[in-house]
Amino acid sequence: MAGLTRMSMRVALQTARGPASAVGVMSSQRRFLNLHEYQCKNLLREAGCNVQQFEVATTPDEAADIVERMGVKENVVKAMVLAGGRGKGTFSNGFQGGVHVMDADKEKMRELAGKMLGHSLVTKQTPPEGVLVNTLMVAEALDIDHETYFAIVLDRENNGAVMVGSPEGGVDIEEVAESNPDAIFKEKIDISIGVTDEQAARMAKNLGFTKGDEGKIAAEQFQKLYELFAKVDATQVEINPFANTKDGRVVCFDAKMGFDDNAAFRQKAVFAQEDTAEMDPREVEAAALGLNYVGMDGNIGCLVNGAGLAMATMDIIKLYGGEPANFLDCGGGVTPEGVASAFKIITKDPKVKAILVNIFGGIVNCATVANGIVAACKEIKLELPLVVRLEGTNVDEARAILANSGLPIISAIDLDDAAQKAVATL
Question: Which residue of the set 238, 274, 283, 293 is catalytic?
Fold first, then answer.
């Protein structure tokens, strides 16, 4: 059963977990918004936070023009993909590294951009085939004096936002927390007050900003970052590194942000920036329809109402020797239109050889679901074996609807029966 637990954990993490942070954040079962680094930096810049000059390019010529327009001595070039480990990544053409620092030379930039744009970058966090790079961020390269870590995250233990900082920045903060916990500093934030001057100054001192006006500047940045955190309904604002330069500047060099999906209705400008190019098109389509879908590697498609029931369904399929092809939770409001949409998404996977529908009719009427299943089968001309297990409100009427539909629908009396029948169709 250990394998089943891991499978359930995988789906639970994919559907209920936001971006990694120093303090874990769990939420309802939604697809979390991820923004590229340049998009996060745009938000920081608009909030008055200090970031180095940067622009984005989608062609080698645009990258070359940025060098000329920016007019700095050195540039740092980063491939914009939603994955870590870019600096050590490898492109599909054999070119090494998704992050480069180079002299501000227009022609060299054009050549470098040509080796990165239009090619897939493979890192430790991408699929084996990598992710296609369509955008580069070209930024001003600054001479860093000391790197620190700073973040504002939602913390369950404190029931609210917490500032987290460490003088050991530019590295994996989880490793710092494990190897040197005394180097992690936290400040609980009172949401009715915000980050106080005392808290900001104490954090700046703990991170080592003590030269000249650096402490004052760092403290002001912490307060502005919290104002941004609250304004955009963020669950995380992570700056790593948050650093000073040899000429006395205090800069947010890299930024990652997570957002509360429940606030999407009032953060339309933020959520409109979502880049779906790296996502499974079926997941994007499902999300637009209010369905929660995660593709997997098996051959039995699943349509279930409720995340817990969906994971249990996948587990029992595997118990009887099958492999689930997906996690698909259609929620409590099952409608004929929703069933038809779900079937269309499931059948787009060429690996799917059978479909198992497992619906518990508590709020939802099983007869409504049965009518939806029949209508969906006729609409999309479903040819795959279909096993249906219904239980709950009006289940007898629902079973009669399926039996009298004239369709080759296989009814099941319980989840064990359904899983065994689905596996037997393969």
Answer: 238
